[in-house]
Amino acid sequence: MSSSLVAYDDSEPEAETEKADDLGTSRQASLPSSSANPVQHFAPGILSTKSTYETQLTENTDNFGMSVVCEDPSEHYAGNNNSDLTSYCRRVYSSPTALRVPYKNYEQTLSSSRNSGNGASQKRTHKDSSTAPKGIRPYIPKRLRQENTSTCERKESDQSESASCDVKLDIPAEQTVRKISELIKPYLGSRYKLTEVPKSLIFHMSKHNGPVNAIQWCTVREQSHMLLSASMDKTIKVWDAVDTGVCLRTFSCHSSAVRAAQWSSCGRRILSGGFDSMLHLTDVETGKQIISSENEFRISTLKFHPTDSNVFLCGGFSPEVKAWDIRICKVTRVYKAAVQQTLDILFLPEGKEFLTSTDAVSRDSADRTIIAWDFLSAAKISNQIFHERYTCPSLALHPRESMFVAQTNGNYVALFSSQRPYRINKKKRYEGHKVEGFAVGCEFSPDGTLLVTGSSDGKVFFYNYHTSRIVRTLSAHREACVSAVFHPVLPSLLATSDWAGEIKIWQ
Fold first, then answer.
1. 172 in helix, strand or coil?
2. Running DSSP on this structure, what letter comes out for residue 71?
3. Residue 426, Cα to own-chain centre: how many angstroms?
4. Residue 154, Cα to own-chain centre: how many angstroms?
5. What region does 267 belong to: left with phi over 0, alpha with psi -120 to 50, or beta?
6. The whole model's pTM is what?
7. How far apart are the C-alpha atoms of 245 and 248, rounded to whole Å?
8. 337 CB contacts (<8 Å, ≥6 apart)?
């Protein structure tokens, strides 16, 4: 009997019975000729290791089996390739039925198996039992390498092994997220009233050790007593800025300056990014990181999608803006532009389009300073929106009209239409404050009647939206005032921050 007939059981079921009878003559054992399902494992013996070839026969009626392990001497193979292998086999009875034959001459056996019988109905898999040589690493396709670099680690908050920030809890959780301020309750069921210009200082909070880059009130109306602040001192703080003015939480997730931070739509999580190229989604109550990912560039701006809270945009020191999906923790879209840095991102109503402000400035014009994008297709809608030779560090959308404004380094705020083709209003310009290279932010009041902006000289300017005239100037800080935001529920309540790390609440 040929050695290939034992190693590769490719013949018909009747021929299988005859081969099994030949192998069983020395021990008076025979294999049943019932339907068999052989599963074969191959491993070439080219690395001076012992490879194993297995043929498993599974019976439908009988529960006994036989395992034959054949060790094939090289001199026997050299002398007679077609000799009977039964003299070199030792049989070990086990269950289920298995036939094990290790071969050193794998290539000869493989060629003879291809010429024998009809093996179309058999399933063959390659299994290498030998270990890989030292110094050889498996090849990983480029696509998988890119996915691994862009895929972050998902860390569930209910698992004990999940990572957490270095968080300082000054107040119990029940008094932070779940609390509803008594000052806010009377305004929850009513419409926002007319905004008045703040006049007096309520709280002065100065626990940051570096410039405050961004501040934001909590997006949930019931929990809007909480104010979020991101600082160059590598920390994120949550304040009770309505009742007490104390710091409720301090998160130290980043190893470098925190440039951007955003509340989630549920008000229980904080998305942050900074100059350490890290993205963190942190639970406010526990301080545990729900998502942690290393980005490919330093982050300068983050924005959640207005209708899909699981999607956000990330921009920074890169010509690309990336759209992330929290559910799969991956980048879903990439928006590429011929720029070096994205300064700010603004979603237009319904979230189908968004704007980016960049640092692209030529000698006489800035044709790519503001770019309009289609969110779904990642296509550019227009890059001929703002033609003056100034960059725009911040953008703001009007709450009731189809307009948006852009803060410029020309010491004025420009007004644009949020409808295509995004024309600039050349008759209105809000000027009088100073920017001078700082990332000074601007924002509308909730009723849209006032436009507030900081200034590099520490003042806060209030402009009438319709007339573009200065309504009031507030001497708020000694250093550059970079942020000023109105409270979403309480009328005339304003929060400001400066380059010295101070936060003040005005009413």
1. coil
2. -
3. 40
4. 9
5. left
6. 0.67
7. 9
8. 319, 320, 321, 356, 358, 360, 368, 371, 380, 383
